[in-house]
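Sorry to interrupt, but I need a hand with the structure work. Please put the record directly below this note.
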Amino acid sequence: MFEGIKALSHLCHSSIVITQNAFHDAYKALALAASSSNTGTSLFHQPLGDNSHITRKLKISLNESFLILNIPKPEAEVITLKNLPSPELVKERFKILFDANDKKIGGSFYLQSKVFRAYERIEKEREWRKSLGDKEEEEEE
């Protein structure tokens, strides 16, 4: 009788160790794939001249910001200060969506914060582009 219990205990222990090792290996492989690839984080993290340092800091991509604020994505492959949406358009869309999601009128704080983060992301992009010297491009027009 003790032999059967001992064998069952050994079988359970072996199963647990094998499963644990399999999960550990799978996690390591997933972590390696995510760190070596920039496409594994989000559907919205697509190349569009997106500055990854701003995206990482604010945890929202430029593409996602355009989608949230319902602003058409620039046609150009590379974003410059010249082809970013106008500050007036961005501010207008932000105000409309931010006010529509006000908690006082039954809106969602979560959606309101997403709208704010999208607005903030586009404005940070604009500030970064100006600091690079894209200001001259804007003044040429």
Summary: Residues 2-36 form the longest helix (35 residues). Confidence is low (pLDDT under 50) at residues 39-48, 135-141.
